[in-house]
Every structure is written in structure tokens, then in C-alpha cells.
Amino acid sequence: MANILDQIVADKRREVRDRQTQVSLDQLKARIVGLPRCRNFYKAVTKPNRRGLNVIAEVKKASPSAGLIRADFDPVAIARTYERCGADAISVLTDEKYFQGKLEYVEQVKQAVEVPVLRKDFIVDLWQVYESRAAGADAILLIADALPPGELMDLMIAATELTLTVLVEVHQADALLSVRSLIGFPEHGYSVLGINNRDLTTMTVDLNTTSRLKGMLDDDVPVVAESGVRTRGDVERLIGVGVRAVLIGQTLCEHSDIAEKFAELFG
């Protein structure tokens, strides 16, 4: 099977080059001037609560593995439902080609809710970090398998300077070994580790990935489990291994009653 992640990243780099001809880095920097500090995504996803873990609920229309997830897709209505249900943060997919997302969704959701907003995309260039901040994101996703370690560090430094939190995502042990020392870099409180149970090269899911990789970390490293959560039993398994938060989108967005499904999973 072809490596889907490599294909997506190659397409994303071409897309970014095209968009840079329309909006320059200096123009993005000008848009950021005067913006308030980002909402504290780190605190939102690491704080203790009675539920046992925090919830990053994702606004998700489609994916390469599932196809169209929600036909009656209204990102603002979905985000408001999540917030009413008690979500601690909102993740917004903005990749257009593979996930039918839009950058505007970040701006729309940010204005509609009070919790922090994560921009979830394939960020491979400094320009996108500034673009995310200008759009109103409070946090960004950086995928370790999509970035050489030096580039990852540079983007983390830039994000911290802009008060953005970084969710550093890994799926395999070798990637974890290369980035685990970066959690807390360059400043404490601006990065958390995401363990994706979905293999982005094949799109297969194994919920055991979280527990397997979590065992390679010190207990004080904040971990977000991503993908594969479908039942209350799955949630309880993740609470049992000590993750701080779960990122969940498809299971919620494909259900006819999002609030009902949220309550079923998280109480």
C-alpha cells in the first residue's frame, strides 16, 4: 500500500507554496499584531477533572479512511454542541483536499465558543504557523512523521513565540524516541504529546498503540490519545493508562445526535 501520509504531505507542500504567492509572511505577521494571547490549550487538556480525562472534540466532515462522515455539516453548530456537552477544547480540521475542511472554520468556531481551538492540519512550513495564529487558532498540530526533527523544533519555537500550544503527534516508537524530549520545549506549558492510534501511512487503527507508547514515557508527560475511541469501554481503557485527554471526532460527528453520543461516552 502506498504511504498515504507522504502523499498528503507532498500535496500540502505544493498547496502552501501556491498560497504563499497570494498572502506573504509579512502580511500574516501584520494581521497578528494586536491580537490577544491565545486561549490556554495546554491548561484545558491537562487539568484534573472528575471525568478522569479531558475531551478535545473535533469538528470533522470527512476523512480519507471514512469518506463523508456528516452530510449536514455545520461547524459552528457542532462546536457549540460540544461546548454545551462539556468539551474542554475544540479541534477543527482545515485540510481541504483530504478532509473537506476549511481554514475559515477556525475563525467561525473561535468566535462561537469560549474554549481553546486547535487547528488540525498537516503543518509543514513556518508560514502555516503564522497563518494559524492569524486565523484565531490557540493550538496547532505538528506530526513528527511529517517533519525532520530540526524543522519540528523550529516550528515549536515559532509557535511558542506566538503563544500557540503545540500538539506533537506520534504513532510509532521510533518517532516517540526522537521527540519525547521536546515536550516542554522551548518553554513549559506550550506543548503536549499526542499518540495517534491511527497509522497515517495505512489509516488502520489500533487502540493499544496508546498504552504501548505511554509505557515509554515518564508519568508527568501530558499525553493526548487520538483516534479509535468508539465506546465507553474505550474511554475507560484510556483513563486506566493515565492519559490526560482524548481527541475524538468521527465517532461524535457520524452520530445523528452528537450530544447523546457525547453523554454516552463521557457522562
Overview of the structural elements:
The protein is of the alpha/beta class. It has one domain: TIM Barrel (Alpha-Beta Barrel), CATH 3.20.20. Helix content is 43%, strand content 16%. The chain is built from 13 helices and ten strands. An eight-stranded parallel barrel has the order 1-4-5-6-7-8-9-10, surrounded by six helices. The mean pLDDT is 96.
Attribute tags:
single chain; 267 residues; TIM Barrel; 8-stranded parallel beta barrel; two-stranded antiparallel ribbon; amino-acid biosynthesis; Aldolase_TIM; lyase; decarboxylase
Structure described in brief:
The chain has helices at residues 4-20, 25-32, 41-46, 75-85, 96-99, 104-112, 126-135, 149-161, 173-179, 208-214, 232-241, 250-253, 258-266; strands at residues 54-59, 62-63, 67-68, 89-93, 117-120, 139-143, 165-170, 191-196, 223-226, 245-248. The protein is an alpha/beta fold and 267 residues long.
Radius of gyration: 17 Å
The second-level CATH architecture is Alpha-Beta Barrel
Strand order of the largest sheet: 1-4-5-6-7-8-9-10
**Which homologous superfamily in CATH is the superfamily?**
Aldolase class I
The low-pLDDT segments are: none
Oligomer: single chain
Secondary-structure-derived class:
alpha/beta
Largest sheet: 8 strands, parallel, barrel
